[in-house]
Every structure is written in C-alpha cells, then in structure tokens.
C-alpha cells in the first residue's frame, strides 16, 4: 500500500465539507491513498447552515433552501441518500409580494424569470406605472451593451429595464440574495447568465423566453422540482449526513481547531510542504492545503507567503446580516399573512430586507395553530440595526410588520441569529481580481482556495467549487511539478 498523501482542509462550512467529500470520491476512483483532515475553528460543522428545532418549530438560522436548477446540491443529496427528504415549496401558497410606495403588491408569477405567465395580473398589480411597464418592455429593442469590461448590477438592469423596474422589483430581489448595494456589485460575477443572454439574443426577455422553450419536459410520472427546494427536517440534515459519511470514510474531523499561522517549505523543485500552526501550539504538515475560509481569514494566513494574494483577498468585502424567526398564534394573524412573504426595496427606507412566512412556504415547519415567520435585516448600507440589542432589533422588525401587514400580536417565540461579515460582495472587477489571485498563488502547487467568497454564494455553488478544488488537489498530487 502506498503511503497516504496528507491533505488539510481549513474550514468546516459546506465548502470545506464538500471539498473533503469530493476528494474522497475522486481519490477512490483514481486509486490514490489520501489522508484528509478537516479543521474547523468553531464548535460545530456547516458554517451558516444551521437548523434549530424547538418543540414543533423548525427554524433556519442561515439559508433555508437552495436552487434546484443548479445540479450540485441535488447530486450531493442523492449521494448521501437524502433525495427522498427533498421538499418543494408549498404550491398552494406560492404568491410573493413586494413593498412599493408603502403598500404590498403581488409579484406576478414568472417575473423573477422575466417571463410573466399571465399578462393580465402583471398589468393589474400596480407594482409598476404604465410608463414603468412600457420602459421594461423596451428591453426587446434596447441595444446590446459592450461585451468587454465590467458593469454594475444597477447599471445593467437600469439600462435594460429602466429605473422603476430596477428599484421596485429587481433591486430587492438582488438584495435578498447578496445583501449588497447593486451600484457596487458586478453583474458578470453575480448574474453572468443575464450578460450572456444579452449578448446572444440582444434582449433578456427574448433570451429567457427562448430558454423556457428549451426546457425539457418533466419526466413521466415524476414530480418537477420547484425553483427552490429544502429538506423535510431542515438543511441541517445535509450537514449531519455529510459529516457522518466523511467520518465513515476515515476523514479526520476536528472542531475547535484554529490555524494561527501558515508556513511553507520545499525540499525539491515543485514540491511544497505546508506547515500549519494550530491554536493549541501543535503543528500539522500537509502536501496539499485547501483554504475554505472567508477571504479575509485566508488573507491573514497567506499574507506572509504572498502579500499580493493577501491584498487581493482583502479587497473582497463582506456584509453583515441577521435573521429573526418569530412564531405567532395563527388565529391572531389570520388574513394578515399571504403567500411566501415579501421583499422590501432599499428606496422604501425600512429596516426589513425581506420577510418569509416560513410555515406557509415549507411544510413541516410549524404546527397548524402557529404561523412561523423569518425576517431578514442588515446588508450593505443597512447594517446599523445590527448594533442594537436583540430586543431593540425585534422591536424595529415588529414595527415594520405592524405597519405593513397589521401584525400587532405578541410572538410566542423569538430567535435572533447574527451573521457578522458573512456575505461576500462581488464588487466591480471581482473576476479580474480572481484572475490576479490565481496568478499570485500559482507558484504554490497544492494550495487551493474555495468558498462563497469567489465563484458563487449559494449552497450548490459552494458544493461545485469544492469539487473543483478537490480535482486541483489530486492533479497536484499526481503531477506536483505541473500544478
């Protein structure tokens, strides 16, 4: 038996765990012997994927779902035996609303994909004025933008659909995903598909309609997945199943283990050893190293090796947010809650970014006599609320719910989850900086970065990027002089 090659993965969020899983899978297929160690500074696994179960309530402190259109999440669930636990959003309540000029207006079905399924409800929604609707429709004749260079999300969508559609619909949708400022965010880094559609079809609307026609029919006898899916008992089951499988495969999982410093040494051309100094004073050596930590954490570790890489990583900003779960007696909020919830444009100057009626959106989240909500606050330019105490934050959110929905009853349960510097911002020039980062790290074979800070913030994005990181590691171990 060959001596196993040691690979250390720093960071036990979904990116680090997915990297370890894919590394084991790819190494087994290639016949490589690998000793894999995953280090997590905190006390638990999964990063922002945190499910709480309190009596009959199930809350998600971080993400509550993932996109079914990106296959990496579904594929990992299949490999872990979780496919039968996947659930769709509730078809009977799939309406959503957006706050516009102080009132909640229904978001017409299909608007998120820019192909409204019925024109009448869209025209009658009152969400956009007639001039705003007409300007949005001009997307089919607005000329293509330049194919080179970068453009902000705000500039791109204003240019294609007009200011009104951007500010009242598109901006809050984007803020709900990235918690960022659309004037600073790169459209090529966040929504490259829209740029591709513009270049290919000359119009987002025409491109989305063409893509819709190309969609394969649902498999016979099968159930088509909704755009977002979750797990029956919460996304925490994904982390539980993943760590259990890794442990069975012999992966060493260490929590409470923080890397204080990183050193590099080489005994022959193209072969590096990475020495990690841990918080307990011990050291760990590896032939390949994956940093699945936030960019600012990786920056601190890499700065002594390459100040250029450290500086580039520091240029990836992070926003802070919070989720607040509240349960209300169902009889006390009857008629006040509809659909899945609502989003709030920045122009409305509210504390809320979005509110989800969790127990209406997902089955099995609360008993029938309770309504469970999930409120989202913070983000770029709106982080001031995070400086308040839990009680003060909840009071502000309840004031918004009272003003917008008429909910004044006391919640029976409240849970506040703060996420400091948790949401990476893909600002203008992000992709160029990643190219420069790859160049700065190119001399360190076997050193790989992965995580939400680089090529996608969603769960499937992180899983996919972890698989790419694992592939890079194995290529290095096979041909160290070529990596």
From TrEMBL:
A Pfam family of this chain: Amino_oxidase
Reactions this protein catalyses: coproporphyrinogen III + 3 O2 = coproporphyrin III + 3 H2O2
Family from the record: Belongs to the protoporphyrinogen/coproporphyrinogen oxidase family. Coproporphyrinogen III oxidase subfamily.
Gene Ontology CC entries for this record: cytoplasm
Cofactor: FAD
Pathway as given in its UniProt record: Porphyrin-containing compound metabolism; protoheme biosynthesis
Organism (species): Nitrospira lenta
Keywords: Cytoplasm, FAD, Flavoprotein, Heme biosynthesis, Oxidoreductase
Subcellular location: Cytoplasm
Main localization, broad class: cytoplasm
Chain ranges of the Amine oxidase domain: 14-474
Protein name: Coproporphyrinogen III oxidase
Catalytic activity, EC: 1.3.3.15
